[in-house]
Each structure stands twice: as structure tokens, then as C-alpha cells.
Design goal:
The complex is a heterodimer of chains A (about 290) and B (about 260).
Chain A: H1 14-29, E1 35-36, H2 50-59, E2 65-70, H3 77-90, E3 93-94, E4 103-107, E5 120-124, H4 138-146, H5 151-164, E6 175-177, E7 181-183, H6 193-196, E8 202-207, E9 212-216, E10 222-224, E11 251-255, E12 262-266, H7 269-277, H8 288-291
Parallel strand pairs in A: 2-3, 2-4, 4-5, 5-8
Antiparallel strand pairs in A: 1-9, 6-7, 6-10, 8-9, 11-12
Chain B: E1 7-16, E2 19-29, E3 34-38, H1 45-52, E4 60-66, E5 72-74, H2 80-89, E6 91-94, H3 98-101, H4 108-118, H5 124-137, H6 154-166, E7 172-176, H7 184-201, E8 204-209, H8 212-218, E9 221-226, E10 229-235, H9 236-241, H10 246-253
Parallel strand pairs in B: 3-8, 3-9, 6-7, 7-8
Antiparallel strand pairs in B: 1-2, 1-4, 4-5, 9-10
The chains are: A alpha/beta (about 290), B alpha/beta (about 260).
Chain lengths: ~290, ~260
């Protein structure tokens, strides 16, 4: 055994963490504003959460309890490997329980359970610029943010209604933060947008490839954009979760066989397990006692 | 017409390094007046137009504009936010190539509605009604409202661009060769439409063109440019029927008679 592979706490060197913390502080001071930062190479490919990992590494302390989710699940590749990464390089406690975590790094979901003061939610963001697909020039989009010219964002929503009869954007649904900056909430389903509004938890967004950090501080107004005659609506589901019977949660579709069989289950695995443990049952729930 | 000009240009010069774009151009534009800038390629017409429309910063000289509240404002002293607001509300800019002035990947309705949304209109039904109304006024049939401009012919694109610019009831329109690249019959209808709109809405307009027929049809007054200088200006009929400068005479006599 050699000790060659020793890392600084939480992988990044202290100067880098300092640089990222400065960007985070600025982002918190200007809610919704994208702060450029000197994103580092991380030992994972772009698109796998390099931004989120850097933000987490910069705010992580030895006493923190870390939870990592990927599309709501604690047990998918991305979540498992990032959790293992921080166990290895920072030796922090990890959990899958939303309630017990002090830092939650997430890819594309906000936990169903209401986050509380003192918790920090770190989002992995692929494309931080909400105007990007409408205006390809970075110089122009930055100017549009600076001058608060957001008419173009509504052009996108207009197109949605003209083509589909309703606002068909279901994820990365643009929001206005504290009445000023229009922000991309990362590709979370629009189901989660209302949870960002006046959240007690601090929300940090890291985009590694695009080198941007932005933030929504606790108790900040987050309003989803819409039209007066086509107000913002979240997705609804016909059936409750097949495992825990939960309603009012975001469900994933799971294909069961090749004969068209499918079920809908909570995308937030921790929430689902917690409910099952408390005795809630959906119609496809695996019943331990009956099996025995 | 009121007794104050809507736009005052004084000694506009633009140099590209050692080359001259335009030199010492001064004029007043009055409300409801259509001014044509004519001249051959490279004479500085478009440079002048861009300087007036704040798309280019003139090397020297000033452009003043009378705002809706009646105040004359120096455009170069305005903040960028004010200038951009002016450009999408009180002004219009019609490009020679419609692809430069349109969003080719969004529908015709959204193209027309964009300015409305930019000034805060948030009612889908109203935006769509206004867009439909404007498409009708520029003779684009209502069932094309959800088509992208890609699917439009050159003439339709140009008319769509005009509708997009006029939807916020601007007071001043800049046009850079609005009929360039269109065939003659389409040109004629577009000119007819423009003439009607300018008259109905009481627009002021500055039109850059190398086509003297366009200038004669649309404009009240004409400025002839050569090598960056205005060599002759006056009422359109006077300049075209009785050109004084040798170059203008050449220009007028070069029109192909059919």
C-alpha cells in the first residue's frame, strides 16, 4: 500500500474552493444571476454533474451529511458514484434520507419532502442559460439579462401554445427570481417549480461545462412564467404511486413486460420507501408478510 | 405636420480606418415624411442608415430624435437600455434580407407578437388576435399564422417583416432596400402596400434604395449620395425630373426604358 493517492479534503484544492465559494456568495447576493467561475476538470465527464460536484466540494464540511439523487433516486449510477466519490475524498457521512441530509446534490428533481432551514440543495445544470435555444449568442443573452429584456422567453411559450394548444414545456420551465432575473431551474420537471418558491433551504446551481454558478437564497420569490389566459400548471397523474399509494407526487413510468404492462411509481425513492415503511400500500406493493 | 422635425442629423461622418463610409451628412426629417437615400453600391447609403438607426456609432456628428413626449434627445447620449427600447417600440428596421429581421425558427404569429411580449403584453389571446390582424393587413392569409417564415416566399417574408415592425405603432421606420431581390410584380404589390401603410399610419420613413422607381413611388424627398457625400437633395419629383448634378443626371438617364 502506498499513500500516493491522497487527496485534499473534498478533492479540490483550497484555492479552488475559495474561488468557487466567492462565486457562490455573489450568486446568493444576486438571486438568479449566472456568475461565471473557473470550472475545473473533474474526474468525470461533462454532463455527469461536474458543476454540482464542484459546488458540493466547495461547501462540504466534515460534519455534513450528504445525500445524492439522480432523477429522484438514490440508487442510480450517477447518484451512487458521486456519493462514493465524496465518501472517499472527504470521508463524510452519507444518507439516503432527505430529512437527515444537510447537503443534497440532485440531478433533475427536488425531493418530495419539504426542505427545511439549514439544508442546501445543489443542482447539476447542463445548460444554465434559459434564453440559449432562442438566442445563440452569449454576448446577446448577457445583454438581455442586464437590460431585463425577457420578451423572447414568452415567444417560446407562445410557440408552445400555438403548436400544442397549451404550454407544452414540461421541464426546465423558466422562472423569474425575485422579480428580476429569468432563470433555468435545470431540467427539473415543472412539477417541482412551486417547491422552489419561498423555500426554506438554500438552492445552489452548478454548471461545470458552461462554467456558471447561480443561486436561489432561502425565502426567495420564484415565479414560473406564463400567460394571463394560459396560467402555469403542474403535471397531474391519473393514478397514485403503485408501491406506496402516494398522490400529489411526481411519478416515473416503469415498463414491466413486453406486453404493454407498466406501472407508475414515485420518482423520489426515499419518499416512497419512507411511506411504505409507515404502512402505506399501493396496488402493486410487494407484501412481505404475504410472501412469507 | 408639426413644426419640429422628428429626426435631426448634423454632420454625420463615419470612417472605417482610412476609408470613408459617409461624410458630413446633415438633414431634418419631418413627421409623416418619407425620405429616400439613393446612390450606387458603395456610396455610403447603408452606412448612413445604420448611423441614424444607432446600429453603428458615427465617428462624428449627432443624431437627435423627438421622443413621444416631445423632447429632442441625442441618440448617442442615451443609455443602451433606452436605445434598445426605442428600437423595439417607436422605431422599425426593415432589412433587405428578411432572414436578418425575422426569427426564422418561430412561427409568423410569434414573429409579429414578439415586440408586444417585449413591452409586457401577457395575454395569449390578445397577442394572437393582434398578430392575425397585422398579417391580414400585409396580405398574408390567416391560416399561415402558425407557419414558420422558412415556409414563406421572399415577398411574404418581406411583408411579414414589415408587420413585425409595425405592430407596436412605431413613428419612424428605417428600410434598407426593402424591395431588393424580389421580382417585379411582387415589388409592385409590396410598394403599394408600403405606400398605403405609410399614409394610413402617418409614418416617417427613411428608405435606402438604389432603385429610383422605388424612390419616386414612396418618397417625398430624396438625397443622392456618391462617395459618402450627399451631392444633391430636394423634392423627389424635382430631383428626378430636373436633376442638377452631373452624377444625378447620369443616374436618372441610366434607368432602362422598356
Amino acid at each position: 500500500m502506498s499513500d500516493l493517492a491522497t487527496y485534499n479534503f473534498a478533492y479540490l484544492d483550497e484555492q479552488t474552493k475559495r474561488m468557487i465559494r466567492r462565486a457562490i456568495l455573489k450568486a446568493i447576493a444576486i438571486p438568479g444571476y449566472q456568475v461565471p467561475f473557473a470550472s475545473r476538470e473533474m474526474p468525470m465527464p461533462y454532463g455527469w454533474g461536474t458543476g454540482g460536484v464542484q459546488v458540493t466540494a466547495a461547501i462540504l464540511g466534515p460534519d455534513d451529511v450528504l445525500k445524492v439523487i439522480d432523477q429522484g433516486a438514490d440508487d442510480t449510477t450517477n447518484a451512487v458514484s458521486i456519493r462514493a466519490f465524496f465518501q472517499k475524498v472527504a470521508n463524510v457521512a452519507v444518507t439516503t434520507r432527505t430529512r437527515e441530509a444537510s447537503i443534497i446534490q440532485t440531478r433533475h428533481r427536488i425531493p418530495e419532502e419539504k426542505l427545511t432551514a439549514g439544508q442546501t440543495l445543489v443542482y447539476q445544470v447542463p445548460i444554465p442559460e434559459p434564453l440559449r435555444f432562442l438566442e445563440p449568442r452569449e454576448t446577446e443573452t448577457r445583454k438581455m439579462h442586464a437590460l431585463e429584456e425577457y420578451g423572447l422567453m414568452h415567444v417560446k411559450l407562445y410557440e408552445d401554445i400555438a403548436r400544442n394548444g397549451h404550454i407544452a414545456t414540461t421541464y426546465a420551465y423558466p422562472v423569474k427570481v425575485e422579480g428580476r432575473y429569468v432563470m433555468d431551474p435545470s431540467p427539473t420537471p415543472k412539477f417541482d417549480n412551486p417547491k422552489m418558491h419561498m423555500s426554506e433551504a438554500l438552492q445552489l446551481f452548478g454548471a461545470g461545462r458552461e462554467k456558471r454558478i447561480y443561486a436561489v437564497p432561502p425565502h426567495t420569490e420564484v415565479v414560473s412564467l406564463d400567460f394571463e389566459d394560459h396560467p402555469f400548471e403542474i403535471q397531474t397523474f391519473d393514478k397514485p404511486c403503485a408501491l406506496c399509494g402516494a398522490e400529489d407526487v411526481y411519478l416515473d413510468e416503469v415498463v414491466l413486460d413486453d406486453k404493454g404492462g407498466r406501472m407508475f411509481v414515485c420518482s423520489d425513492t426515499d419518499h416512497c420507501e419512507d411511506r411504505c415503511a409507515r404502512g402505506h400500500r399501493g396496488h402493486l406493493a410487494y407484501d412481505k408478510e404475504a410472501a412469507e | 405636420m408639426t413644426d419640429t422635425p422628428i429626426l435631426k442629423a448634423r454632420d454625420i461622418s463615419k470612417f472605417y480606418g482610412a476609408r470613408t463610409g459617409c461624410r458630413n451628412v446633415s438633414f431634418d426629417l419631418w413627421p409623416g415624411e418619407v425620405l429616400a437615400i439613393v446612390g450606387e453600391s458603395g456610396s455610403g447609403k447603408t452606412t448612413l442608415l445604420n448611423c441614424l438607426a444607432t446600429r453603428l456609432m458615427p465617428t462624428s456628428g449627432s443624431v437627435e430624435y423627438r421622443m413621444r413626449d416631445g423632447q429632442m434627445r441625442d441618440l448617442s447620449r442615451m443609455s443602451e437600455a433606452e436605445r434598445r427600447f426605442l428600437m423595439r417600440t417607436d422605431w422599425g428596421f426593415v432589412h433587405q434580407n428578411p432572414a436578418d429581421g425575422l426569427r426564422m425558427a418561430v412561427s409568423a404569429g410569434a414573429n409579429v407578437g414578439e415586440r408586444l411580449m417585449a413591452v409586457g403584453e401577457r395575454h395569449y389571446g390578445n397577442i394572437r388576435d393582434t398578430a392575425g390582424d397585422w398579417l391580414r393587413r400585409v396580405e398574408i392569409s390567416g391560416d399561415r399564422i402558425d407557419d414558420q417564415p422558412r415556409a414563406f416566399s421572399g415577398g411574404m417574408r418581406q411583408r411579414l417583416q414589415i408587420a413585425r415592425n409595425l405592430v407596436t405603432s412605431p413613428r419612424l421606420i428605417f428600410m434598407d432596400e426593402p424591395t431588393g431581390g424580389l421580382d417585379v410584380s411582387v415589388q409592385a404589390r409590396l410598394l403599394d402596400l408600403l405606400r398605403g401603410l405609410v399614409q394610413d399610419l402617418g409614418l416617417s420613413a427613411i428608405i435606402v434604395t438604389h432603385d429610383l422607381a422605388v424612390a419616386r413611388l414612396l418618397s417625398h424627398r430624396i438625397m443622392v449620395m456618391k462617395d459618402g457625400l450627399v451631392i444633391e437633395q430636394g423634392l423627389t419629383d424635382r430631383v428626378l425630373d430636373d436633376p442638377r448634378e452631373a452624377y444625378t443626371q447620369l443616374l436618372v438617364s441610366s434607368i432602362l426604358q422598356v
